[in-house]
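Figure 2 data, in text form.
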Amino acid sequence: MADNGQNEAFEPEITVFTCIYCGYMSADTAGALRLQYPPNIKLIRLPCTGKTDVHYILKAFEEGADGVYVVGCPIGNCHHVRGNERGKARVERAKKLLDEIGLGGERLEMFFVSGGMGATFARYAEEMTERIRKLGPNPLKNGRSPRPEREEK
């Protein structure tokens, strides 16, 4: 879906799943450094991004999130060994499902940061907000189907 100029006043609602280690700590670091990032993100802490279930991601969209992203420890540096790799695989699976149902996998992303990367966390919040602003509101918010209705032949 391209931006047609109608979404300039649109402020997306974004759900962010973070691990309690690096992901959440980077958000905390951004706050401690008084870095500005969009206030439209809602943080949900998980023990590890390996616990990011596809169901949680889809439920966030169903409940009205315009975009979702997951923030975990850097690859090779997960506090739960390979949890972030499992999380990444689940995000990729969810992207495919979002494409299949017509909502669009580009509304979902995963980022890897260490706890001290507050500026990077803030930058990702800005990037996702801009991306989702261009895509427009989640079509499920209005009770519409994400796919246009097919005409009967």
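Caption note: The domain at 14-139 is CATH 3.40.50 (Rossmann fold).
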